[in-house]
TrEMBL record:
The keyword Manganese does not apply. It is found in: Periplasm. Residues 1-42 form the signal peptide. InterPro entries: AB_hydrolase_fold (IPR029058), PET_hydrolase/cutinase-like (IPR041127). Its EC number is 3.1.1.101. It comes from Nonomuraea salmonea. This is poly(ethylene terephthalate) hydrolase. Keywords: Hydrolase, Periplasm, Signal. The keyword Repressor does not apply. Residues 41-300 form the PET hydrolase/cutinase-like domain. It catalyses: a butanoate ester + H2O = an aliphatic alcohol + butanoate + H(+); (ethylene terephthalate)(n) + H2O = (ethylene terephthalate)(n-1) + 4-[(2-hydroxyethoxy)carbonyl]benzoate + H(+). The lineage of its organism: Bacteria, Bacillati, Actinomycetota, Actinomycetes, Streptosporangiales. One of its GO terms (molecular function) is hydrolase activity.
Length: 302
């Protein structure tokens, strides 16, 4: 019995039964209203942009207008590239993500991803590698070097827009294998998204970074059975992880605009780099549709 009801009972001898019943009901209603008015769980301080919808995530651009700037090939640790960033300076700082192309490829092969991800409230650096033939371990080090450049180079104007504690990596093919290398060596990263990843190393039991692996069902260069799937399964179940396999997709699916990939990728970055639980709905229950062959997941822990 509630304390409020006990207090009302003490008043019963002073009033008639009808008055007492009315008083008790009033107290009960007030207590219920106060409980309903109690504040909800606080939103993440890193939420950026409006409440997400399918239409917002499937559009070619998110809610933020973006700008871009080039990075010289003379920088240390990687081969230069392009930075994309939100123009809005009223939202506070943004998380940042470095993305590597694959073997023999240049950033231009993935460049559609730069403004698309940035328009959802991220600073994105699409890197050029030191050579076109760099292996995954080298690409992983270059991704980390690019992130260090973003947060440490005092001459970089966009540096003031970046939250250095909220960083992520991604990449295609050997760049995807490189993103696993980066996540394995730097556990402070907030997210990793290997795309059609290729790597001779198959076990990633040391990865603690929330990782979404995106593979293609018809990939003959990095077949999912010998790359994406064992990579996913080797990451501990205690780590947040997801595996998205695109129906009938070849190894080169990231090199043209892919709405299904971009939607899940942005949702993963928003959830784990921005700690924005509004995006849980796009990750768990798992997404489905004709474009998706398979989806495995641990479900984000709020």
């Amino acid at each position: 019995m509630s304390r409020e009801y006990d207090d009302v009972q003490l008043l019963a001898p002073r009033f008639g039964a009808r008055t007492f019943t009315t008083l008790a009901l009033t107290v009960s209603l007030i207590a219920g209203a106060l409980a309903a008015a109690s504040p909800a769980q606080a939103a993440s301080p890193y939420e950026r942009g409006p409440a997400p919808t399918d239409a917002l995530l499937e559009a070619s651009r998110g809610p933020f207008s973006t700008g871009q700037t080039s990075v010289s090939s003379l920088v240390s640790g990687f081969g230069g590239g392009t930075i994309y960033y939100p123009l809005d300076t009223s939202q506070g700082t943004f998380g940042a993500i470095a993305i590597s192309p694959g073997y023999t490829a240049r950033w231009s092969s993935l460049s559609w991803l730069g403004p698309r991800i940035a328009s959802h409230g991220f600073v994105v650096i699409g890197i050029e590698t030191n050579t076109l033939y760099d292996q995954p371990s080298s690409r992983g080090r270059q991704l980390l070097a690019a992130l260090d450049y973003l947060v440490e180079d005092s001459s970089l104007t966009v540096r003031s827009r970046i939250d250095s504690s909220r960083l992520a990596v991604a990449g295609h093919s050997m760049g995807g294998g490189g993103s696993l290398e980066a996540a394995s060596s730097r556990s402070s990263l907030q997210a990793a998204v290997p795309i059609a990843p290729w790597n001779l190393q198959k076990s990633w039991s040391g990865v603690r970074v929330p990782t979404m692996i995106i593979g293609g069902e018809s990939d003959s260069i990095a077949p999912v059975r010998s790359h994406s799937e064992p990579f996913y399964e080797s990451i501990p179940a205690s780590s947040e992880k997801a595996y998205l396999e695109l129906n009938n997709a070849s190894h080169f699916f990231p090199q043209t605009t892919n709405t299904t990939m971009a939607k899940s990728m942005v949702a993963w970055l928003k959830r784990f780099v921005d700690d924005d639980t509004r995006y849980d709905q796009f990750l768990c229950p798992p997404p489905s549709g004709l474009a998706i062959e398979e989806y495995r997941h641990t479900c984000p822990s709020s």
